Amino acid sequence: MVEPIRTERSLPPEIDKLAKKLAKDPQSKMFIQLAEEYVKAGLFQEAAAVLEEGLKTFPTFLTARVALGRIYYQLGLVPKAKAFLEEAVKMSPDNLLAHRTLVHLYVQENALESALCSCAVVLSANPQDEEILALKATIDQRLGSGTPSATPNVQEATPMMSPSPHPREGTAVRDSERRASAAAASSVVSLPEGSPSSDKVEHLTTWLGKIRQRRIP
Asked: Domain 13-158+182-208 belongs to what topology?
């Protein structure tokens, strides 16, 4: 049974209302709404506690998993945030909310190739996303390219590879291409196939911006 978490300040009445409803029906997914209200009140730790409890009953609830990962990142709990968000990406490789936060997380950890993969997912949905474009430019500079790098192939979750050279270009060129491709492949973070994310995510994460989610062609 979920009880409203008491703090020194008075809680919005909606929190008490939702907590009572959830207490009567603890097997419902109403906990996501309760967590949202805690977020609106600026009570991120309380929201995280509610989501953790709800995920015990619904461990594959993607909406709650993404929201919890983003809240943990907001709280500075990077290892927990990474664990939840990467699991969400395994479940749904095109989850924009998870990838947006993972870009920041990977840049912070200097995992720049992984950051580029997450950038590619977001930019495939919105090529004009200014925040992600700025982050990608920073990543490109840190990788020492000096110019924007090629956008990774989102569907394969791997960096774009140069096409195989024509046989007439010679053995030396083919060997060089193979070595470059092998080096790029070794740095790839694979994103397995998954199910689409719930469109309830936008409501839970209004505090971090409303991001329209859609499956990438």
From this structure: 1.25.40
Note whether 69 and 88 are within 8 A (CB): yes
Closest CA to 74 of 96, 46, 53, 54: 46
pLDDT digits (tens, 9 = 90+) for 15-37: 999 999 999 998 899 999 999 99
Whether residue 115 contacts residue 107, with contact meaning beta carbons closer than 8 Å, is answered with yes
Q: Is 194 left (phi over 0), alpha (psi -120 to 50) or beta?
A: beta
Q: 153 by DSSP, 3-state: which? A: strand
Hey, where are the domains in the chain?
A: 13-158+182-208
Q: How far apart are CA 125 and CA 28, in angstroms?
A: 32
Q: Which residues, other chains included, contact 49 with Cβ-Cβ below 8 Å and sequence gap of 6+?
A: 5
What token pair was written down for 115? 């950051």
Per-residue pLDDT of 179-202, as tens digits, reads: 433 333 333 333 333 333 333 333
The β-bridge partners of 153 are: 158
- Tokens representing residue 158 in the block: 């791997």
Q: Is 214 a residue whose pLDDT tops 60?
A: no
> Is 0.70 surpassed by the pTM of this model?
no
Task: Give me the half-sphere count of Cα atoms (radius 13 Å) on the Cβ side of residue 22.
Answer: 22
- Local confidence band at 145 (pLDDT 50, 70, 90 cut-offs): low
According to DSSP, residue 146 is labeled: S
